[in-house]
Amino acid sequence: MASTLNSRYVIYALLSLVIITHAGLMAKSPCSIQVARLYCDHAVNPPAIDHRKPTLSWILSSTQRGSRQTAYRILVSRKPSSIRHGVGDLWDSGKVVSDNSTAVVYDGVAPADGELCYWQVRVWDELSRPSAWSEPGHWQVGLLEPSDWHAKWIAEATSDKAAAPLFRREFSLSGKIIRATASIYGLGWYELYLNGAKVGDQVLAPPNSHYDRVNLYDTYDVTRLLRQNENAAGVMLGGGYDSSYSRWGWKWEKSKRFILQIHIEMADGSHKDIVSDQQWRTHEGPITACGIYSGETYDARKEQGDWSTFGFDEKDWSPVVETDSPGGQLVANTMPPLRVAQTIEPVSITEPRPGVFVADMGQNFAGWVRIRMQGQRDDSVRLHYSELIDSTGMIDPWTNRRARATDIYVFKGSGIESYEPRFTYHGFRYVEITGARKKPTAETIQGRVVHADFATEGTFASSNTTLNRVAQNFRWSMTSNFMSIPTDCPMRDERTPCSMDSRVYEDGAMYLFPMYRYYRKWLRDSRGGNGNPDWDGDQVLLPWRLYCCYGDTAILRENYDAMKNYIDTLRNRTPDLIYRGGYGDWCAPNQGTWESYFSNVAAVNSALFFQCAETVAQSASILNDEASAKRYRALADSIRVAYNAAFFNPGKNSYGNGSQTEDIMPLALNITPRDQSEKVAGHLAHTILIDKDGHLDTGITGTELIGDVLCDHGYGNLALQVLTQSTYPGFGNQIKLGATTTWEQWYSKGGMNSHNHAMFSGAAATLFSRFGGVQPIGVGYRKLVVKPAVIDSLEWVRVSIETVRGRVQSKWQRRGKNFTLEVEVPVGAEAEVHIPATGKGEIFESGVAATKASGVKYLGRREQAEVYDVGSGVYRFSVSQ
């Protein structure tokens, strides 16, 4: 008996030890999530922000399914050493119970102007286990007050004597340098140099803006470029958006000028400012002509040697003069900089005439070419850019219109010389080269692709090669026009701010690129307009799109007053709620005359009027302005009623004259009564398939939405057909004719046309949201639906999207009756996954019955699909019928 009791005691003791040990291991088990990246105001370590209360976000990572954040703690400090010791002398949020990891508003001590703030975050997971602290990030407050600027605006004494004047100043620093920040704004465009090196790698700076309203200065950390004792600073200015720029754009028509302030902190606690003032000297540089349309002429014989280094002989340089500012407020530039994003080699170089060479870059894009050639002194090379070539192989500059698009380089005669322009850019695929002593090669001429630098991007691929080329054309068209403003086209004498063009591809752009900072700047430029909904309605629609995509209410607050004012203006001028002015469905298939570019004007603009009113109502609710929400919701309801009364034909189940866009708009915007939507969609499908033989007949607005509407109503096969159509009108037809970007018109030549217009790229959203199936339904991708439109002629589709919470991926494949769908959901999000199934086959997830798989919850059957809810992680669904 005693022996039995002793045995039991031993067993109990061992069990207790196991339990205690297990509990101890559980207590010590690591957090299931880690903080991977930090963002301040949607940027990584921004060098300057334009306010004192930024939003802070972080990306979480995990190797486990279902991991989620339950709390966070943020520390913000003036010194990195304080952060390392867990001290937030500017802000310690304490442990905040929340699953939010996006757009947390800084709520600490207001940092001083120019102050550098260091921060880090830790989180707690679903089992309340704390993560390690993130690697520290930082942000710097910009110069927010006019009194922060001690520098003066300076210019040449003789107004605009030089096409691209040089400016220089020497200075000495004694003691160890701790930190140095340069803030600069130059008109038209500038380049900054310190001790012979160009500062930063951005180009075509500063960005275009209303110069009398706001001047967006750039900020650089230049600590490593400065030396103890002897230093020199240099600035080169070019024309930019000067008097030669289009009357439809925002231009600077006075003399070139700049303002520069370098703030230097020394180890002894002192600081020094090197500023633009009358101590600077100026001289003409080697650029003898430059223009945004005409191109650049560079005479290497006139180079000034090491002009931005200490000790340079400046005896023949002239004094500068102080001048006035452009009138706008100096504000930190927070949009992504323009950079050379890619270097490409020509796919062929021909000689259609003796001594005339034509390089084909194989791709239409915005930027310029770089040459590395040898020539005798006084030789020159002429580079003429164009989108097209003629039947003889010579370039055809027809779409350039009045843009000369020519760069000229004059050799100094010192071996191999390298040149690329600084103060112009071109839209082109082909370059005509004259004056070269030898035939150029891929080593001597290269294409330099220039656009706003978005760092990351989404991807699309499918089993259909034409659809893949369509997707590439969309992407190239967007990037070619993402300069400091979203332009209409990069090649001709326009390149102007175009709200109508931007409106129709913004959703697609947000699938492809992180657009928050770019579009925030664009809204600052464009808000306040009171024109037609197809143009100025973008100031209402875009803030809401950004809020939904990135989850930051700051964008709504910034634009809310302008959004309300715009809708009120439309309401006052539209007593019957039918808006009859505007461009309508711009550039549907037409006869090549100006009048024929307009179509469905009232139907499009009245539908957009409704969408804008509804958007303001939704925004008002988010901002807790319930009185306004009620008022604008009532207005939207009234517009819906008026729209259906004016355009809907019950007997024909169609709208207006029965055109495709007239059916598309009310279906896409939920204007059509629910009990009529399937009939109207059927009419649309009949119009496309029977009346137009499988072709679209839409302009930029209808084309943006046609794929979504068709897929949503069960016509996915037709959506693929119209978006890849190989005969006119269709993107496939353009590709057959050599298109590598989307065109301004469906035809190749005639009328007003370019071969690189982003306005027809709006259907890019369909590739991700319907063909790939990823649709955010919660703000900031907190909740998403993965519901691919499985199309008969597609074997597979893969999409990835870099969201504010991390990467979302959808990969589906069909082989015979077998179907697989792989979904990746980031930490902080959950997805509703729709698996198309007839009900005859069992659905598995990673080899286990889906209803029993870890982290998978069955929601039921909807519209020929089995629906599941999943948290973060990677899931592999499969079904065989």
What would you say this structure looks like, in words?
Helix content is 25%, strand content 30%. Strands 19, 20, 23, 24, 25, 26, 29, 30, 31 and 32 form a ten-stranded mixed β-sheet that branches. Strands 9-21-18-10-15-12-13 form a seven-stranded antiparallel β-sheet, with no helix packed on it. The chain has a seven-stranded antiparallel β-sheet with strand order 33-38-39-40-46-42-43. With 881 residues, the protein is an alpha+beta fold. The chain has 16 helices and 46 strands. Residues 1-27 have low confidence and may be disordered. Helix 5 runs antiparallel to helix 7.
How are the SSEs ordered, and which strands pair?
Layout: H1 2-28, E1 34-40, E2 55-61, E3 71-77, H2 80-84, E4 91-92, E5 96-97, E6 104-105, E7 116-124, E8 137-140, E9 154-156, E10 166-173, E11 177-187, E12 189-194, E13 197-198, E14 214-221, E15 229-238, E16 257-266, E17 271-275, E18 281-283, E19 287-291, E20 295-299, E21 318-322, E22 329-332, E23 338-344, E24 348-353, E25 356-374, E26 380-386, E27 388-389, E28 395-396, E29 406-410, E30 416-419, E31 426-434, E32 445-452, E33 459-462, H3 465-481, H4 499-512, H5 516-526, H6 533-536, H7 538-550, H8 554-573, H9 601-622, H10 626-647, E34 648-649, E35 654-655, H11 660-668, H12 674-691, H13 700-712, H14 716-724, H15 731-736, H16 764-771, E36 774-776, E37 783-786, E38 796-803, E39 806-815, E40 818-825, E41 830-836, E42 843-845, E43 848-849, E44 856-862, E45 865-870, E46 873-880
Helix pairs in contact: 4-7, 4-16, 5-7, 7-8, 8-9, 9-10, 11-12, 11-13, 13-14, 13-16
